[in-house]
Design goal:
- The protein is of the alpha+beta class.
- 24% of the residues lie in helices and 43% in strands.
- It has three helices and seven strands, in the order βααββββββα.
- It has helices at 20-27, 33-36, 123-146, and strands at 6-16, 40-45, 56-61, 65-75, 79-86, 89-100, 104-115.
- A hairpin with a 3-residue loop joins strand 3 and strand 4 (65-75).
- Helix 1 packs across helix 3.
- The termini are far apart.
Length: 153
């Protein structure tokens, strides 16, 4: 992630009710994104099957519009890193997964964004929104991973 612009960095540590391998499998299924990411409306991936390093997709998200994403690092059950580009900036999202007792997973998420142009004005509001929304999104992802909860309705 490079370029000029205002930088934002948010770290979230959250425990979810799904084991790392199942959580990762749901994360790598790009078609599921609109079901667990509250602001994602559509996803159009290149190729079939689970995503891995080099997989690219286009995603439409509230507040951002259409943007391109790519998996830049992936270790099944342990690590997922994606980068995205849109007219208003660039983003890098890294998720580190660690097994917890009871079949749960600790997710350490780092979101880095570099905003450009008029989007820089929104920077003060973005970090609190991510801190609020990301744990809720991860909980929905975990529900999908174990096949229960409102995400499967």
């Amino acid at each position: 992630m490079g370029g000029e612009g205002r930088a934002i960095r948010v770290e979230v540590d959250h425990v979810v009710g799904a084991p790392p391998d199942r959580l990762y499998a749901a994360l790598a299924d790009l078609a599921l994104r609109p079901r667990w990411q509250e602001t994602t409306r559509t996803v159009s991936a290149e190729g079939d099957g689970p995503a891995g390093v080099g997989t690219r997709w286009r995603q439409t998200t509230d507040g951002i519009g259409e943007h391109e994403m790519e998996v830049v690092a992936a270790e099944p059950g342990r690590r997922w890193v994606e980068e995205g580009r849109a007219g208003g900036g660039d983003a890098r999202i890294a998720l580190e997964l660690a097994a917890e007792p009871g079949g749960r997973t600790r997710v350490r998420a780092t979101v880095e964004m570099r905003l450009r142009g008029a989007r820089r004005l929104a920077a003060p509001a973005i970090a609190p929104m991510i801190r609020h929304q990301l744990p809720r999104d991860l909980d929905r992802l975990a529900d999908l991973a174990v096949g229960e909860g409102p995400a499967n309705l």
